[in-house]
């Protein structure tokens, strides 16, 4: 975040964009499916980013390209669904202000989604980092079938001092509606006292300290299947080809792979790719992912100096 582009309510650019919808629907009436399927994709705080000029990045990603994570580009081969719903938080503040001026909190996001998913028999939610934080909460709240979480935060009060350093989190830290969601794990476990329908598949890198801390707060969440990956890359810590296959899992598939993953001696990105695609097809994509992981590791080492 650059000094001239602050993520607060004095930012006129953000306030103007906040009047927009900030969610996007794609309906596919020709999608072959034995049961009507809906996917929900939650963007992370990386929806736009430039350490030198965040305003320039915001203008390009949001105002010019109307960007949503998980939509387009190399992700065009994601599972087919009768409806795809894309959400984003232009404040990059864990959806504390919801997605727009009317749907301005997580409870209101939940209300919106309950309407948008009505009539669909199979519902899946996907997210990475802060998008996974939201995915875990809304997935449990609306009772989706599968929830795919990549490097989520389960407790904002234990994540890089973010409540103090993000203006909106600090502002709403005592808000009776918004603040309880800072502890996603507690919200989820409270919901699960009444409804344990949702199955969580939780992927996280073991080489990132704040992800290791977050994983401690996943304990106690029911029907959560853990996929620790030995890498230094926060976010989607598996290669893209494996990702497509993972998002096609049903609950039984994911549970079966979770049991296989526990038994494997290596939890590297290559090992995961081999498990999902087999050694021959897994080699080219896992090598690319390994190079990406090596560069991420070097980046973290440089930061420590």
Fold and architecture overview:
There is one protein chain. Helix content is 40%, strand content 13%. It has twelve helices and seven strands. Helix 11 packs antiparallel against helix 12. The longest helix has 26 residues, at 279-304. The two termini are 22 Å apart.
Q: Into how many domains do the coordinates divide?
A: 1
Helical residues, percent:
25-40%
Order of SSEs, N→C? HEEHEHEHEHHHEHEHHHH
Largest sheet features: 7 strands, mixed
Q: How do the strands of the widest beta sheet line up side by side?
A: 1-3-2-4-5-6-7
Distance between the termini: 22 Å
Keywords:
single chain, alpha/beta, Rossmann fold, seven-stranded mixed β-sheet, 12 helices, 40% helix
Topology overview:
Elements: H1 12-17, E1 23-27, E2 37-42, H2 54-64, E3 83-87, H3 106-116, E4 122-128, H4 130-142, E5 146-150, H5 162-165, H6 167-171, H7 184-191, E6 199-205, H8 209-216, E7 224-229, H9 240-246, H10 251-263, H11 269-277, H12 279-304
Parallel strand pairs: 2-3, 2-4, 4-5, 5-6, 6-7
Antiparallel strand pairs: 1-3
Helix pairs in contact: 3-4, 4-7, 9-11, 11-12
How would you briefly describe this protein structure?
This protein has 305 residues and is an alpha/beta fold.
């Amino acid at each position: 975040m650059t000094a001239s582009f602050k993520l607060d309510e004095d930012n006129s650019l953000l306030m103007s964009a906040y009047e927009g919808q900030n969610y996007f629907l794609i309906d596919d009436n020709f999608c072959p499916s034995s049961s009507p399927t809906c996917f929900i994709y939650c963007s992370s705080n990386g929806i736009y980013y430039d350490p030198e000029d965040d305003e320039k990045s915001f203008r390009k990603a949001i105002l010019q390209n109307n960007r949503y994570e998980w939509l387009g580009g190399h992700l065009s081969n994601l599972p087919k669904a009768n409806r795809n719903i894309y959400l984003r938080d232009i404040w990059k503040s864990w959806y504390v202000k919801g997605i727009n001026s009317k749907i301005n909190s997580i409870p209101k996001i939940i209300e919106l989604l309950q309407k948008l998913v009505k009539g669909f028999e199979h519902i899946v939610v996907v997210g990475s980092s802060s998008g996974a934080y939201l995915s875990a909460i809304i997935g449990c709240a609306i009772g989706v079938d599968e929830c795919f979480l990549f490097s989520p935060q389960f407790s904002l009060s234990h994540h890089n001092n973010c409540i103090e350093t993000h203006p909106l989190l600090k502002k709403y830290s005592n808000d009776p509606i918004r603040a309880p969601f800072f502890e996603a794990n507690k919200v989820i476990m409270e919901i699960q006292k009444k409804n344990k329908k949702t199955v969580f598949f939780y992927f996280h890198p073991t080489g990132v300290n704040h992800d290791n801390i977050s994983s401690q707060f996943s304990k106690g969440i029911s029907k959560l299947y853990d996929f620790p990956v030995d890498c230094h890359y926060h976010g989607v810590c598996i290669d893209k080809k494996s990702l497509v296959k993972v998002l096609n899992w049903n609950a039984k598939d994911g549970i079966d792979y979770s049991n296989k993953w526990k038994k494997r001696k290596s939890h590297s990105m290559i090992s995961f790719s081999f498990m999902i695609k087999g050694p021959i097809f897994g080699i080219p994509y896992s090598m690319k992912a390994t190079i990406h992981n090596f560069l991420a590791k070097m980046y973290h080492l440089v930061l420590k100096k």
